[in-house]
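user: Please review this fold.
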Amino acid sequence: MPKYSVHQQPVETLLSWIKSGEIAIPEIQRPFVWKASKVRDLIDSLYHGYPVGYIITWQNPNVKLKNGEVSTGKKILIDGQQRITALTAAIVGQRVLDKNYKEKNIRIAFNPLEEKFDVLNKAIQNNSKWINNINPIINDEITISEARRSYMELNPDVEEIKIERKIEELKKIKNKQVGIIELDHSLNIDVVTEIFIRINQKGAKLSNADFVMSKIASDELHGGNKMRKLVDYFCRLIVDKDFNKHILDNDKVFVSHDYYKHISWMANASDDLYVPDYIDFLRVAFTYKFNRGKFSDLVALLSGRNFETRTYEDEIVERSYKLLAEGVLDFSNKTNYQRFLMVVKSTGLISNKLISSKNSLNFSYALYLKLRKDGLQETEAQGYVKKWLIMSLLIGRYSGSSESMIDEDIKQVQEKGVRKYLEQMEETHLGEGFWEFGLVNDLETSSTNNNAYNVYLAAQCNSNSNAFLSKSHTIKNLLEQRGDVHHIFPKKYLSSNNFKPKQYNQVANFVFTEQSINIKVGKQPPEKYMERVKEEIGENKVNLTSITSLEELDKNFKQNDIPRSLSHSTFEDYENFLAERRKLMAKRIKSYYQKL
């Protein structure tokens, strides 16, 4: 049996379905992104009988109620909301939100003589050849005869029969066909996504999280619509503090709800270390509360899926919405959120530039919330979370099939306990072969967006290491000040000796140091500038370095994992230097990880 159908429905029928609630439109308080001119073009296409694309709906399954009765599932609109909004704005007269979250009307005018549509403006309003607003005619608020007479009073010289015919054609817009693709509830989400991509003209990617958000946003019975707003608003407040005013001005109902009080603290918080979007937010809340990682499972549970009997039950719907609401609230809880950020920073990951995997953060936050809920002491929970975060970054745990990995990891933690499963992961992925060979190989790269290199910098921040040839600035300070990395073997020096960018831009040739020191080093070979450094130390001068003793210099070399051979190195020694430093960097990372 086919699990989706493609057919046509009149605009009037589509709008009646929306009005009656047969199609549930997600209550997503986002601006109407179409320009008014695009609304005009849509109406023009309907008038002339041109295709206007497809609306995609997803059938909710029929759910068995507690009394044994069956509740018929509604259709959820998952694609076509802008088109539906345009129709309801132009034909029904419904107000829309603009980019400033202010409500506005979109009035479409019609010129029956030229059969043209346009967005109402002052010039059109003062031109008798135009009917200023089409929706009273299409909606039967005024009859064709009334519309014709009104037009003829202002334009007595035009042909009356022609005007009547054109107004009749205008009224027929509600009978024009719109394509609808109805997806069966049992359809695999991957297939649904593929259908969406093939139908969507832009080929936009639809994530499984979008299905979840559409589902909860269209739910009023269990408060999903308000939950959706909490997620949307919280993520927006993280990056745009002014958005709070828009909430206060334009969504009084939500402001009066406990959900707003719960997230309002973010309007005054400032931290860009972890900037989750709605997908990350849902990922954490779902993984933490349901001990699952696949959004397709969440969609099924919110639909009431009983995985054992393969039926749909209202009790499961209620329980799933309750659990998700708890997860959403725990995610956005001020104490939980800020404590988790402190845990991340305490590892030395002080900047989002050092974290290339958002899902490593997501799983770590879900793990933190779970361990706290399971009753672990704060210190113990933080220790496991820190190790998991760094381990997952080092091995690229979530770089591939992240959803499957998250699903596996949370289930294993639930089954075996975090201590045992973490030990198992370490035995499998962090053996001696990894530390002595795998990690060293990972550091053989010219990409600074490299997990091994970023964890190395975190290790330096964690130990509060000083910048190269400096005792007044730490690497942490320079990272926080958006400082630049510099070349130990100067770039111009290596380039002049026929080294290519991929060679001289190796991460093992990078250090953080003060810009003034880097300028003074210039393009000198290491043996030359290190000779000057030692001379200055011996003469008690402060110029190329702020270090004042050979003991401090030796300590600085160790803090930056610089081989001592640097002091007498030229370009001929460069490759050996890189190999030696990579081993020292890997050794630093290993020691750092074991102490977390």
